[in-house]
Amino acid sequence: MARNEPRPVIRLRSTAGTGYTYVTRKNRRNDPDRLTLGKYDPIVRRHVEFREER
Question: Which residues pair with 21 in a beta bridge?
């Protein structure tokens, strides 16, 4: 059922290896591939790349 939603909820996991995640929504029509964003990781106290996990 989640596959039919145009804006599904996704989890962004830190590439720093801390296990910290953000939860957000994305537009599947505009971003069909996995999303990558630069966001703040409070565990390492700096901005790192966060990638979409499925």
Answer: 13
Give the pLDDT confidence of 30-43 residue by residue, as tens digits.
999 999 999 999 99
**Position 14 confidence tier, pLDDT thresholds 50, 70, 90:** very high
25: Cβ contacts below 8 Å, ≥ 6 apart: 7, 8, 9, 10
* Among 53, 40, 54, residue whose Cα is nearest residue 16: 40
Q: Identify the structural domains of the chain with CATH numbers, from first to last.
A: 2-53 (2.20.28.120)
CB atoms within 10 A of CB 13: 15
